[in-house]
Amino acid sequence: MATTQLNDEETAVLIEENDRFQRVDSLAEMIAQHFRVPQGGEKGRWYSSAEILTALQSHFGLSTMARYSAEKIGSTLSGRQFNLRAEHKAKGNCYLPVEM
């Protein structure tokens, strides 16, 4: 039995078609409500994952954010949903969003 592998284009189409079946991540939703990708010539600000966690705790409350860590925020921000510019700086991995 021969195995077939999808090429990059077929994989992209499959991912796009299956997006509607993906579970909604509440952390990703909270981040998206508070931060976004800079548009045009707009300048963002460099935030560490811990700084983003602090901002979300201020906005949504400590009890809501208690189950999330800076590491979880970092892995969520690194996903394809956000497409944020990231760099490793003295305080760790930092992301360049615009706070809303």
Describe what you observe in this structure.
- By secondary structure, the chain is α+β, with helices and mostly antiparallel strands.
- α3 (49-60) crosses α5.
- The relative contact order is 0.20.
- The radius of gyration is 16 Å and the shape is globular.
- The model has no long low-confidence stretch (mean pLDDT 88).
- The longest helix has 12 residues, at 49-60.
- The strands form two sheets. A three-stranded antiparallel sheet has the order 2-4-3.
- The protein starts with 7 loop residues before the first helix and ends with a strand.
- The protein is built from five helices and five strands, in the order ααββαααβββ.
Helical content stands at 40-55%
How many individual helices?
Answer: 5
Strand content: 5-15%
> Which structural class fits the helix and strand makeup?
alpha+beta
Stretches with pLDDT under 50, minimum 5 residues: none
Inertia-based shape = globular
Q: Give the biggest sheet.
A: 3 strands, antiparallel
* Beginning-to-end CA distance, first to last residue: 54 Å
Q: What's the mean pLDDT score?
A: 88
**Rounded radius of gyration (Å):** 16 Å
Within the largest sheet, what's the order of strands?
A: 2-4-3
**How many DSSP E strands?**
5
At a glance:
The chain contains five helices and five strands. The protein has 100 residues and is an alpha+beta fold. The chain is globular, with a radius of gyration of 16 Å.
